[in-house]
Amino acid sequence: METIFTWTADTAMPPMFRRRLPLVRNYPCFPGVGGSIPEMVSSEDSAGSSVAWPTPGGGVLRLPLVVSSYTLGTHVPFRERVEAPAAAGFGGIGLRAENFWDAQATGLDGQAMSELARDAGVPVLEVEYITAWGTAADRDAAQQRKEETVFSMARTFGVGHLNCGLIEKLPLETIVEAFAELCDRAGDDLTIALEFMPYSGVPDLATAWRVLREANRPNSALIVDVWHWARAGMTPGELDLVPAERIVSVQLCDVRRTPMEPMRTESLGFRLPPGEGYGDAVGLVRALQARNVRPRLVTVEVISDELVAQGVTHAAKVVAAAAHRVLAGASRG
């Protein structure tokens, strides 16, 4: 990942936005020999917008700290979705197709959204979320519209990878074939990042990696999310199955002591800030770093109805502070 910095010339911009602004180019990268993706690094740092990610041998990467779309709630005006993360010190934001459509309905096009976000110092660095791609029957008009929107968003915002998951529980060979077709539809310029979820058709890391390996598409990668990791009962040793370079995104959050039923309800409204639960977010980050995983970004995905009810500015500040504590704790290990 190449990071270039510029100074804003807009003297009328609010004081919290008058700072060094990162222009992050998140290019796609494809696996080489052995299934590994060449590393992407941020070449410089901007105070408050990136985080340290230690690597074996004493090196340190500077990666964007991104707030996911769900962390700020589902119905948030675009300008508020930009201003709250900027005030909390994030280096980028995530957008779902639904957020994009909502902003379009207010008269903003993709270019206007991109400019507003970049001018605030929080460019769009994550786009999502493609689901229901497993069978032809599931790929109805609504699914196809959403899929094409996410592809378009990635290209509009210059994001090299996009997030996907599969809720439906299908035979593995069906999932593999459908995932390969999804990668083909995305095109060589976009990487499809698959997220395993314990209640889904891809319930754990081993299954996710098998899907990638058997689909054999160069524009495919993996997401590791603390909530899904913990609730799937993953252990650090299971990371050894996967080439480190195939993990392109790490999502920070945490879990409650006791799982809720249905599990998906907990995932979509009752997560905790990273380091404040029982998922050992620090331990997972250390395990990833020890294996030389070099993600393109670190995302904070704390989907919490309780936090959002207290306001998006409050939610952004709480989860940003928690993420910094987790990353600092992992570095001290």
Describe the protein's architecture and organization.
By secondary structure, the protein is an alpha/beta fold. The chain has a single domain, classed as TIM Barrel. Helices cover about 35% and strands about 20% of the residues. It is built from eleven helices and eleven strands. The strands form two sheets. An eight-stranded parallel β-barrel has the order 4-5-6-7-8-9-10-11, surrounded by seven helices. It has a two-stranded antiparallel ribbon with strand order 1-2. Helix 1 links the parallel strand 4 and strand 5. The longest helix is centred in the C-terminal third of the chain and has 21 residues. It is globular.
List keywords for this structure.
disordered N terminus; alpha/beta; globular; 333 residues; TIM Barrel; single chain; two-stranded antiparallel ribbon
DSSP E strands, number: 11
Structural class: alpha/beta
Mean pLDDT: 88
- Write the CATH fold name: TIM Barrel
Radius of gyration, in angstroms, nearest whole number: 18 Å
The neighbouring-strand order within the major sheet is: 4-5-6-7-8-9-10-11
Spell out the CATH superfamily.
Divalent-metal-dependent TIM barrel enzymes
Tell me the overall shape.
Answer: globular
Largest sheet: 8 strands, parallel, barrel
- Topology pattern, helix = H, strand = E: EEEEHEHHEHEHEHEHEHHEHH
Helical content (DSSP H or I, runs of 4+): 25-40%
**Oligomeric form:** single chain
First-to-last CA distance: 26 Å
Strand content: 15-25%
- Give the number of helices: 11
Any guess at the CATH architecture? Alpha-Beta Barrel
Tally of separate domains: 1
Low-pLDDT regions: 1-48
